[in-house]
Input
Amino acid sequence: MVRYLPDGTMEFLGRRDFQVKLRGIRIELGEVEATLCLHPSVSEAVVVAREDRPGDMRLVAYVVAAAESVPSTGVLRAFLQEKLPDYMIPSAFVFLDALPLTANRKVDRRALPAPDLERSRLETKFVAPRTQVEKVLGKIWSEVLGLEGVGVHDNFFELGGHSLLATRVVSRIRQEFHVDLKLMDFFKMPTIAELTKNIEGLLWINAGRPSEEEAELQDREEGIV
Output
């Protein structure tokens, strides 16, 4: 939407649709909303892009349940992952009794509450990090997510994580443990407990793998080189 100014120039006022650009990718929020509403437990849904923390723009879904039984965040996230790419999955879900409306009976997006990004909203029972690897991962997660008291069974993405933050975590893990952890592995193992098993396995492999000098010497002794 634009308007003409008295001098003939045009002033950009915004978009009439709800398309946003998030981490370099254009996303049609209406597509995410329509997909959410396909779930039988969802009556209404609105998705917005929010920046409640400076520099951390994320998608937030506001959901009105179709019945008294409110679907869990994990259920809705898994449902969307079957139908949408990762960058279109909301980082947070807020469940409301009804969506706020304007005087014209349209959704009042400005009146939508900020999501609760604390761990307390998770259904997972809190289990504190126990091993040294788990403690290091817990510290990394807390710093990247801006949360305290992250449990080893907490899902990174249910805590408000997204692909950009996941990239930061993987980079920190590589620096800390000197292992070749793939970003795709992180998406498959989004809890500290799962990641710990993978990292410990990589550390074990690295510990048993000979250095380049040792490997060359062994090859010479065996007559390979």
About this structure: Strands lie at 2-4, 10-12, 19-22, 25-28, 42-53, 56-65, 92-96. The mean pLDDT is 84. Residues 192-208 form the longest helix (17 residues).
